[in-house]
Amino acid sequence: MKRIMGKMQIKSKKDWIIAFILAFLLVYLIVLRYRSTINDWLLPLQPDKVGYFNQPENHGVYGVTVLCVTALAIGVMIYKKVKGKYVALALAGGLLTVAVIAGSYAYHCHQLLKIPFESQPESMWVTGDDWEKDVHLRYELDEATEKLIADKVRQLERLPKEEEQKQRDAILAGMKRDGRGKELSISLWYDRKNRAPYHIGVSVEDGMIYINKGHGVGDDPFFRDNGLVEILENLKTK
Fold this sequence. Notes:
alpha+beta; about 20% strand; disordered N terminus
C-alpha cells in the first residue's frame, strides 16, 4: 500500500497538471448530475421570451465546475503555503472564466430574441382548451393571420411588476378554485437550421397574456394586450 501511495505522490510540475485535469474532470462529472437543478436556478435570469426549451443547457454546469475547481485549487495553494499573489491570480482567473461563461450565456439568449425580427415562424399552432368541458380545438390559420399573430407576439411588452402580480394571482386563484378554465395557446416555432428550433409558447386566459417559461404560471412573465386577444377571439367565430 505504501508503495502505491508513494507512486501516487505529486512531486513534479507535470504531476500537478495531471492532477488538476483529473480533478477538473471529476468535478465536472459530479456537477453534470445536477444540470437540471442548476438550469432551474438560471431560468429566471433569461429574457422574458426565452423559456426552458431553448435555455443554453451546459453553461451553468461549466460555470459551477469552474467555481468549484477554483475553490479547490485555492484551498490546495493555501495548504501548500503558495505566495499570496499566485492565490490572487488563481481567484482572478477563475472569476474571469465564469464571467466569460456568463457573457456567453447572455449572448446566446439575446441572439434568440433577434430571430422573430429576422424571419417568420416555420410553423404555428393556435389551440383552444376548455378544461371544464374537456374540449380541445386547433384553429386553422391562413398566412395573413399567422403573420399578424407573430407580429403581435413579437411586440408584446411586459407588464409592470405590481400589475403582473395581480394577473398572476388571478390565474393562480382561478386554478385553485375551479381548476383550469378556458385557455388559448399559441406555439411559434422558428427554424435555426441545424439546431433546435426557437420556441415561444404564449397562453391567453381571461384576457391575460403570459409566456410559458417552463416552470408554471407562478414564474411566467405577463404582458400587456396589444390587440392579440381580439385576434384570437375572432378565430372562434370563423
